[in-house]
Amino acid sequence: MSDSQLWDDVDAYFTALLSPEDEALQAARRDSDTEGLPRINVTPNQGKLLQLLARLQGARTVLEIGTLGGYSTIWLARALPADGRLITLEYDAHHADVARRNLAHAGLDRIAEVRVGPALESLPKLADENPPPFDLVFIDADKSNNHHYVEWALRLTRAGSLIVLDNVVRGGRVTDQDSTDPSVRGTRAALELIAAHPRLEGTAIQTVGAKGHDGFALARVVA
After folding, report:
1. Residue from 188, 219, 183, 208 nearest 45 by CA
2. Which of 66, 158, 179, 196 sits CB 3.0–4.6 Å from 140 for a disulfide?
């Protein structure tokens, strides 16, 4: 058995036992496939991790940067109370339409709002609204701008908030300080920002599974 097959089998076991998908989550994946969206959404066990993190935070407000078809959005929104609020930012209008349908199908369209446009344009507009600080920020968008997204997350959070940055391993290429890949460079810059910023304490974890060699970073806002 290959390593990748073993990783897939373990993920399948964990998912079936601990994070099975209900009809709304299955429909979200199916609709995303039908509409031609790339298959880059989080796995069910990763979605469950996000949900647990939001619940451990006691989150009432969540900001997501990178919506795709709304699969991770559903997991996160389900962690919020009935009067909670989730804002998710999506660059692609077609992806946003798919996400809105999936959120409505899951009964979460009153909690989760999808905003369309480049995140680095949407974030200043959001800041101008002076929203209450977000309890959790999940960053899963274009990796070249990861450091900018972390900077914005800091502006829109408070002490005690949690920032989750996905896909930080880049298949192991994150260690290449001479890389010219914008995704690697942006991810390294974000990790270096987390390491150096006086308002952040964080760590990063590499994982294997259905998405191959991957990983995520966690950062807590401390001031």
Report:
1. 208
2. 66
